[in-house]
C-alpha cells in the first residue's frame, strides 16, 4: 500500500516550492521485496526488504538536474530541493544540450499490473513448500548434487507529480523465479536452468507447471552428463526463446539505445555500431526480423503506461521487415537527434536519474510451426537457454553459450550435445535469419546494468524460435 501520508505532505511541499524554479517534478518510489531460496530441499534464505524515497527534478535554463532523499519530512524535502536547485544552476553552464519543457508533457494517468492472484493469496510458508517440492522433483539421481528453487516477489508503487499538473500513479507486481538442476560426473558439471521474470501474481506458483518443469530440468542435466561435446563448424541453428531473449537484448536492444549512439554512455556501458544516419536506411536483418518496443504487453516484466518524461507507452516497430526505423530514445534524445521517440526514459528507483533504457523489446513471431522449422534443417541443431554472453562495447562482435543443444539431421531431432556456443557479428547474423516460429515465449531479466552511477533495471523480451543459416558454432 502506498504511504499516502508521505505523499500528501510531499504534494503540499511541491506546490509551495515551485515558485523558486521554472519547473519542478517529484517522483516517489516505494518497493517491498521478499526473497525465498531453497537449496536441496532446505530453506537457505528468507529476506524481506523495504525501500522508499523520492527524487526531485528541476529545470533551469534548458538543463534538468536531480537530487534525491529518503527523508520525507519537510526539512528533508527542503534540503533536497536546495541541493537540486544549487546543482542544476551550476551545471546548466556546462549542459550538453539546451532542452525545452516539451520534453515533460503534462499527463494525468495510471497503471496497474494485471495479476490473477494477489501476493497475499499464498503465505510465505506455502510458497516455501512449493519451492521445496520443486527441488525434491529434481532429486532423480545422486549426481544431481545441487537443486535450487528461488523466488523474488516485488511490489512497487511509483508516483509522479510536477508543477505543470502531471499526476501519474503506477503499481507493479513482479516475480522472478529461478529453478536450477546441477549435476556432476567426474570433474564435469552440467546445469539446466529455468527463469521466469514476469509481471504476475501468485499464479506464478502453479504446481502443475513447476513440478514437471523441475523434473525435466533434472532429466536434461543427466542427459548432458553423458552427451558428447557440440561439434564445431558452420551449421543452421534454431535458437529457443530463452536464448533469443539475450540475442535481442545484446545485439538489438543495447545498440539501439540513443544515449549510446549520441555518446553519453561511451565511458560507462559502451557505445554502438549504429549511427543517427542509419535510421530509415539500414537493413539490420532479413525481412523476417520485426522488432517491436511494446511496454503494454500483458505480463511482460517491463510493462507500464508512462516513462519518466511522462511519455505514453505504445507499441512501435523499431525494425520492420529488417529495416531499421527507430531507436530506443525518449523525448530528450528526440530533441537532440530528431529520431522519433519511444517511452523508454526510465530510472531504476528514486535514487537514480532516468536514462534511455530498453523496456519490453520483442521479436515478433511468424507463421511457421516449430515442427516445420525443425523439418527445414538438413544439418544443424537447436540450442536452448542462455548460459554465457560476451559482446564488445560497440555491440557488434558477440559470443554466446547455451546450456543444451540437440542435433538436427534431415529435418529430424537427433542426439543431445553439450557445451554449445556460437559467435558472429550483429548485422551479419540478423541478416542470416531465415524464419521465426508461431510459438512465442516471454522472458526477461531484472539485472540489465547501465549508467553512472550504475543502475540495474528489469527488461522484458518476448521471442519465437528463430532459425539462422550458416552460424559459426563451436
Ligand atoms: Zn543490458
Range of strand content: 35-45%
User: Poorly predicted ranges (pLDDT <50, ≥5 residues)?
Assistant: none
Main sheet makeup: 7 strands, mixed
> Whole-number average pLDDT?
95
Structural class: alpha+beta
Counting DSSP E segments of at least 2 residues, the number of strands comes to 21
| Percentage of residues in helical conformation | 10-25%
- The number of distinct structural domains comes to 2
Bound ligands, each once: zinc ion
Order of helices and strands: HEEEHEHEEEHEEHHEEEHEEEHEEEEHEE
Give me the Rg, rounded.
Answer: 24 Å
Shape: globular
Summed up, the helix count is 9
In whole angstroms, the N-to-C terminal distance is 51 Å
Walk me through this protein's architecture:
With about 475 residues, this protein is of the alpha+beta class. It folds into two domains: about 5-220, PmbA/TldD superfamily (PmbA/TldD fold); about 230-474, no CATH class. The protein has helices at about 5-15, 75-90, 125-135, 205-225, 240-255, 260, 330-335, 370-375, 425-430, and strands spanning about 25-40, 40-60, 65-70, 110, 145-160, 165-185, 190-200, 230, 235-240, 290-295, 315-320, 325, 345, 355, 360-365, 380-390, 395-410, 410-420, 420-425, 435-450, 455-474. The strands form four sheets. Strands 1, 2, 3, 4, 5, 6 and 7 form a seven-stranded mixed sheet that branches. A five-stranded mixed β-barrel has the order 9-16-17-19-21. It has a four-stranded antiparallel sheet with strand order 12-11-10-15, with helices on one face. Strand 16 (about 380-390) and strand 17 (about 395-410) form a beta hairpin. Helix 1 (about 5-15) crosses helix 2 and helix 3 runs parallel beside helix 4 (about 205-225). The mean pLDDT is about 95.
Amino acid at each position: 500500500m502506498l504511504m499516502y501520508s508521505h505523499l500528501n505532505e510531499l504534494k503540499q511541499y511541491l506546490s509551495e516550492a515551485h515558485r523558486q524554479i521554472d519547473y519542478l517534478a517529484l517522483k516517489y518510489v516505494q518497493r517491498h521485496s521478499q526473497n525465498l531460496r531453497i537449496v536441496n530441499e532446505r530453506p537457505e534464505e528468507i529476506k524481506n526488504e523495504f525501500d522508499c524515497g523520492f527524487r526531485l527534478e528541476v529545470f533551469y535554463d534548458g538543463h534538468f538536474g536531480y537530487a534525491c532523499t529518503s527523508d520525507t519530512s519537510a526539512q528533508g524535502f527542503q534540503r533536497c530541493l536546495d541541493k537540486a536547485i544549487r546543482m542544476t544552476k551550476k551545471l546548466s553552464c556546462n549542459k550538453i544540450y539546451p532542452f525545452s519543457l516539451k520534453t515533460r508533457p503534462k499527463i494525468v494517468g495510471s497503471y496497474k499490473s494485471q495479476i490473477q492472484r494477489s501476493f497475499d493469496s499464498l503465505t510465505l510458508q506455502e510458497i516455501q513448500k512449493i519451492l521445496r517440492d520443486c527441488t525434491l522433483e529434481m532429486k532423480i539421481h545422486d549426481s544431481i548434487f545441487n537443486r535450487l528453487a528461488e523466488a523474488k516477489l516485488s511490489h512497487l508503487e511509483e508516483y509522479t507529480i510536477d508543477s505543470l499538473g502531471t499526476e501519474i500513479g503506477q503499481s507493479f507486481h513482479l516475480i522472478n523465479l529461478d529453478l536450477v538442476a546441477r549435476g556432476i560426473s567426474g570433474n564435469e558439471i552440467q546445469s539446466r536452468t529455468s527463469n521466469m521474470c514476469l509481471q504476475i501474481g501468485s499464479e506464478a506458483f502453479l504446481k502443475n507447471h513447476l513440478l514437471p518443469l523441475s523434473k525435466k530440468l533434472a532429466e536434461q542435466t543427466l542427459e548432458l552428463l553423458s552427451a558428447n561435446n557440440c561439434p564445431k563448424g558452420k551449421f543452421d541453428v534454431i535458437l529457443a526463446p530463452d536464448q533469443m531473449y539475450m540475442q535481442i537484448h545484446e545485439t538489438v536492444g543495447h545498440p539501439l539505445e540513443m544515449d549510446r549512439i549520441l555518446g553519453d554512455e561511451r565511458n560507462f556501458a559502451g557505445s554502438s555500431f549504429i549511427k543517427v544516419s542509419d535510421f530509415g536506411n539500414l537493413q539490420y536483418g532479413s525481412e523476417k526480423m520485426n522488432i517491436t518496443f511494446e511496454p503494454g504487453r500483458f505480463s511482460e516484466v517491463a510493462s507500464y503506461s508512462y516513462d519518466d518524461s511522462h511519455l505514453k507507452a505504445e507499441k512501435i516497430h523499431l525494425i520492420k521487415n529488417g529495416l531499421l526505423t527507430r531507436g530506443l530514445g525518449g523525448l530528450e534524445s528526440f530533441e537532440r537527434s530528431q529520431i522519433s521517440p519511444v517511452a523508454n526514459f526510465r530510472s531504476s528507483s528514486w535514487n537514480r536519474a532516468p536514462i534511455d533504457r530498453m523496456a519490453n523489446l520483442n521479436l515478433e513471431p511468424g507463421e511457421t510451426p516449430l515442427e516445420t522449422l525443425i523439418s527445414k534443417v538438413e544439418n544443424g541443431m537447436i540450442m536452448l537457454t542462455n548460459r554465457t554472453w560476451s559482446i564488445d562495447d560497440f555491440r557488434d562482435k558477440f559470443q554466446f553459450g547455451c546450456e543444451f543443444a540437440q542435433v538436427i539431421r534431415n529435418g529430424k531431432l537427433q542426439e543431445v550435445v553439450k557445451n554449445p556456443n556460437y559467435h558472429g557479428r550483429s548485422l551479419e547474423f540478423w541478416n542470416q535469419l531465415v524464419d521465426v516460429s508461431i510459438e512465442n515465449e516471454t522472458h526477461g531479466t531484472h539485472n540489465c546494468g547501465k549508467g553512472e552511477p550504475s543502475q540495474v533495471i528489469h527488461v522484458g523480451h518476448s521471442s519465437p524460435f528463430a532459425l539462422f543459416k550458416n552460424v559459426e558454432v563451436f
